[in-house]
Every structure is written in structure tokens, then in C-alpha cells.
């Protein structure tokens, strides 16, 4: 457990050699404090979570044992009979079912563990708040507007006076990110190298990567590989294949035993959380789309913190939904329009009838048998208000599958726009965004929310199968990967090799690296190169003095012209968050070119009298060459920068083109030109 010396929290400016016993836990708490926006928000959020969990457990017990369902469903038929029906049974909880007893026992123990964890973390939270206030000079109210890079810079500056880490003289943003995301980086690498059997099942669009399996992998693999210190991998772990197989099998068996309770709780919690929203806006809740857990791990990058990743995912949602709408199903659309017309007409009749006599909606009943001409018993069936609610729900669902007519098709442009934010675009997708095969792969990653819930419930059954059958067969490959891609860094510990951005060992020249590593040591689809650019974007002040030679020279040259730490984000012509194809020409070169060009007033003014005639235009003195005379020479670094722009992703559409595609697909604007705008010019790229 983390321990902090009280002297560290005082305001003294003299150098202190008081180290923190567990820097990993300390930096994680510092980041969580920033991410959850202060002490009051953290306490309120955890208390609300405890209240929601307690309410869900209590409501489950009352719905299962106390509510008089027989009287409410069968005996309550009108106002007089409903008055005599009791809501709760007289023999409640006298003989509960064994399933309910186990359900309450399991989740009551879980609630008590969360409560103890809440009180256990109070002291650490108070210490982190004092650390922010007295050492970083950041109040809780400022956390709403302060960026994480600002917090990291102040922690790095604090290292010079109050030695947080005595092993290293200087901390960097890279070291802090590697400590916070030590285990997550290994998980990203395992998914990137396709060592985990979590690919969606072919033809079913069913992903086996669920929260249950993610928790099992964290317990059996990521937590078990490190020793008690938390930053060193146990040598015995990398050699014990049988031990890993036993842990996976035992975790799968435990998951199978708890699967009925987990599935029941997840279904009830989802119903309580989304029932009102589903009744009010069915198309915007259950039938809206979101990225699956497998897609999120595929898009996650090395050393990328959760709040930055969620921002990228949220920015791509509009373009992803527009891309899915580019592939309508004509038969389903026709059926949905037919259902919309029929149900909408019936709902209009009921609404019109309620305007004439509102009592009809409550007291007049129609049974399903009466709709087909059969005789119905008196006081049987449902009132018109129930039929109006059902028809409204069916109408909202059918409208969700009714695509607008004559929607313009721009799938390739929209898929490129999605890749600008997700940074995920396999080579097999390039130039084939209009094909059904790419659409099927993308839909497996971007699915309906209701289908994601069903996958989580089915995950209670699929996760034990994966843990007991598929993963033990790959135990040797997993341990071989840990041995081959684990690097020890002084002052940091064991980290994933990809997270170090070691271009000499893992570089891929197809994505801009200066040196090509062995094919078996490279990341897939330029994951490491893209991760470096993304990390450099969000941490512009980061410098690697000890390993700068390993970085691409084109990136060194582009970052060496920055006048201030915050200037990188503002001066570079385009960034990773706006497009995977990053322009590495900074504005300092542009300013030099602008200084050499005459202004508009100088061009319009006439030459002074008796001035010599302008020299004849030759190849050596052409305006193009005069204009580039002040720019940096065309060296290999500039050439590699252009290669990086072209190879991280194919030529992408501009934001104006993406917005035009979305507007035209929704019927909001004219259809853009399909050929001239599909690929931007070289000058724009």
C-alpha cells in the first residue's frame, strides 16, 4: 500500500530525499484524482455507486419474494378489484428460494467489500488532495480546466526539489505514463499481436471479449506476472506454463459457477438504468451503436490514458454512424416503412379518439383474441392506453430501421474520416471501404447497444469456455511474448517494449521509422509509430535526452523548432487527433517563407524610377526556387517525413468534406462532388 511521508506535503523548498514506497500506486491515484475532478466528485461518485448497488440488491429481493405478482396480474382488472389487492405478500421472505439466497449473499459481500474499500481509500485521497494543493499548487476547482500535461509538468519540476523517486534524478512524462499504464500496455500489445482468442465469431458478429473475460485476463495474467512490488516480473512466471494453465482453468470454473448470478444482476441493472430512456427514445438508447470492448482494445494505443482515448472514440461516433448508414438493407427498409405506416395510422386513431373522450383510453379494453374476431371474456384484455404505449414503442423502433430515401453513397470518405480519430484502419480496408466485406468487419466492431448487452450476458458462458479451452492452449505463446517483449528500465521497472517507442528494435519503415526492426518484433499496422505521435501530441514538453537518437530524425527536426512546450500543438499544421496522416512541417518554416515573399501592397506598387530591369527568369531563379531558398534543405529527414504522412494512412478527406458527406447522407445538404473531393490534393495533404 502506498505510504507518503508527511514532510513531502509541507511547503519547504529545500531538497528532500523522502521517496514514495509505491510510485505506481501513487501516480495512479494522482491520475484518478485528476480524471474524477477532485475530492468532492470522487466521494460523491463512490457514495452514489454504493447507493445504486444497494438499491439494486434490495429491489431484486423485493421483486423476487415480496411483490404480490399473482394479485397484480390476475386479480386487478378494474378500480374496485385493484383496491383490494395488496402490493406485498403476507408470507414474504419466509421461505426464499436457494437461488435468491445465494444471489443476495454474493452481492452483499461485494457491497461490503466496496464499502470497506471506500473507507480504506479516504486517507490516500486526503493525501493526494494535499499533494495537489501544497506541492502542485492546483486546487480542486482548477482541475476542471487544467490539462493532464500541465499536471505532469509540475510533477516533473517537483522531482528536482522533493525527490519522489530516488532511483532516477529526473522524471519524464514517458516514465509516468509507463507506470500508470504498465499492465494496460501489455494488454494492448497482446491484442495487437493477436495472441488472445477474442476475435468475433465468423458469421455471428458475436465478440467473446467481454468484461468477464477482461477481468479474468487481468487476474490470471496481468496481475499474476508481477511480484509484490508491482513493477518487476517474476522470473518463475515466464517459465511456468503449467501454472498459467491451472490459473486459467480455475478462473474459468469459478466464472462458470458465478455466471447465473452475474447474468441476472447485469440484466436487472441494465433494465433499471435504461428502461425510462428506452421507453422515451428506443432508437436513441438500445438501438444506437457503440464500439465493442474488442474494438476499444484494438484502437487503444500504447501509453494512452483513458480520458484521451475516450475523447478519440467520442469524436469518431458521428462519422461511424454515418458510415454504417451508407449500407442500407432495402428489404428491411421496405418492411420497416410498412410497419411504420400501419402502426402510425393506428396510433393516430387512438390519439384522435382520446381527444374526443379521454375516458375511453382507461376503461375500454381490447383483448388480442378480439382482434381476430374471437369472443373475449368480460374485463379481459388491455385498455387503449396500453395499446397506445405499445404502438408508440413499435413505431419508434421501426423508424430506426427506416433509412432516408436516396441517401448519397460516400463510404470510403466516411471510413477515412473515422480513421482520423480512431487511428485504426487495417491495410485490407484501404481503398475497399465501399465493399460489403469491410462493412461486415466494421459492424462487428461498431454494434447496437442492446446486442452489446446480450454479448455481456452470453459472456458469462463464453468466457469460461475461452478460459478453460482456448487460452490454456496458447499459454506457452503468451509466456514467450512476455519474455521477448519485456524490457527493464532503470527507475521504472519492467515495461512492454512497444511502450518505450524503441524504433531500432520495433521500428517499421513503412510507417516512418528510420530503422526497420525484425518482422517478428514489429507492431501490426504501425501501432507503435502512431502511439508515439499521439503521445507526443498530448505531451509536447516531453524530451528523451538519453534515447533521442532512437527517434525518427524527421520527428526530431519537426519538434526542435518549437519555441515553447505548448507551441507544438498550436504550430503544427495538423495533428494525430485530427488525422492519422500527420503533417510534420511546422509553422516556423512557413514563417520563414512568408518573410521572403513580398506583401500584397508591395506587389501592387510600381517599381521606383531608374530601377534596373528584373532579371530574366531561369530555372535557377524561378519564383518556386526563390520561395524555397529559406526553407530547410531537402534532406533525408524531409523525405522520411513525407513518407510518414503517406504511410500512416492513405490520403484523407478534409473535415469540410466529412461534414458534407454527413449532411448529404442525412438529407441536409446538396450532394458533394464524388470524384474531385474523394481524394484531397497533395497540397492539402
Structure description:
The protein is mainly alpha-helical and 685 residues long. α16 packs antiparallel against α19. The protein is built from 32 helices and six strands. Strands 1-4 form a two-stranded antiparallel sheet. Strands 2-3 form a two-stranded antiparallel ribbon. It has a two-stranded antiparallel sheet with strand order 5-6.
Name the descriptors.
685 residues; two-stranded antiparallel sheet; 3% strand; globular; disordered N terminus; disordered C terminus
Overview in brief:
This protein is an all-alpha fold and 685 residues long. Helices cover 57% and strands 3% of the residues. Helix 2 (39-66) runs antiparallel to helix 5 (98-120) and helix 16 (330-356) runs antiparallel to helix 19 (384-400).
Q: Percent range for helical residues?
A: 55-70%
Assembly state here?
single chain
Compute the number of strand runs. 6
Distance between the termini: 50 Å
Question: With helices defined by DSSP (H or I, 4 residues minimum), what is the helix count?
Answer: 32
Low-confidence stretches: 1-17, 546-554, 556-596, 599-609, 617-634, 649-655, 664-685
Structural class category: mainly alpha
Mean pLDDT across residues: 76
Overall geometry comes to globular
Rg over C-alpha atoms, rounded to the nearest angstrom: 31 Å
